[in-house]
Amino acid sequence: MRLFRFFHRFASPREFFRIAGSMIPWLAATTLLLLLIGLYLGLFVAPPDYQQGESYRIMFIHVPSAWMSLFVYMVMAGTAAIGLIWRIKLAHVIAMSSAPIGASFTFLALVTGSLWGKPMWGAWWVWDARLTSELILLFLYLGVMALYAAFEERRTAQRAAGILAIVGVINVPIIHYSVMWWNTLHQGPTVTKFDAPSIHPSMLAPLLIMSVAFMLFYAVVLLMRARWEVLDQEQRSNWVDDYLEQLSP
Amino acid sequence: MTAFTTIFRRDIKLALRHRSELINPLAFFVIVVSLFPLGLSADSRTLLQLAPAVLWISALLATMLSLESIFRSDYEDGSLEQLVLSDHPLFLIVLGKVTAHWCTTGLLLTLMSPALAISLAFPPQNLDILVWTLLLGTPTLSLIGSIGVALTVGLRRGGILLALLILPLYIPILIFGASAVDMSIDGLDVAGQLYLLAALFVLSLTLAPFATSAALRVTLE
Question: Do A160 and B161 touch (CB under 8 A)?
Answer without folding.
Answer: no
